[in-house]
Amino acid sequence: MRFGTGLGIAAVILIVLGPFINRNFGVGDAMGLLTPLVWEAAPAAVLISLAYLILLVLCLLLSAALLTTSLVIRHAAASEKATRTNESASVTD
């Protein structure tokens, strides 16, 4: 759960810093178009923008998957514990 939350926080930081990263180091045009001329003129900027997008998507997807899995496991464990408590209470009656 902690790792998933950390990835979620990292994704939020990437979203907030995205315009700064893209305009200063990547391909930061207003329309978001990536033409072949940009690749020929500044391949490093295109790679930085691509790496930013890949990191953002990975952080968001992994965070969602880890948090969902953690909550499902916690719910299953709590449900199992409640079932055991109800069974033991009915056996003692």
Low-confidence stretches: none
Number of strands: 0
Strand content: under 5%
Order of helices and strands: HHH
Helix content: over 70%
The number of helices is 3
Q: Biggest sheet, open or closed, and with what strands and sense?
A: none
Helix/strand class:
mainly alpha
Cα-atom radius of gyration: 23 Å
Distance between the termini: 38 Å
Provide mean pLDDT, rounded.
Answer: 80
Shape: rod-shaped
Short recap of the structure:
This protein is mainly alpha-helical.
Could you please describe the fold and organization of this structure?
With 93 residues, the protein is an all-alpha fold. The protein has 3 helices and no strands. The longest helix has 50 residues. The radius of gyration is 23 Å and the shape is rod-shaped. The relative contact order is 0.15. The model has no long low-confidence stretch (mean pLDDT 80). Keywords: Membrane, Transmembrane, Transmembrane helix.
Essential attributes:
93 residues; mainly alpha; 3 helices; 0% strand
Topology diagram in text:
Blueprint: H1 2-24, H2 36-41, H3 43-92
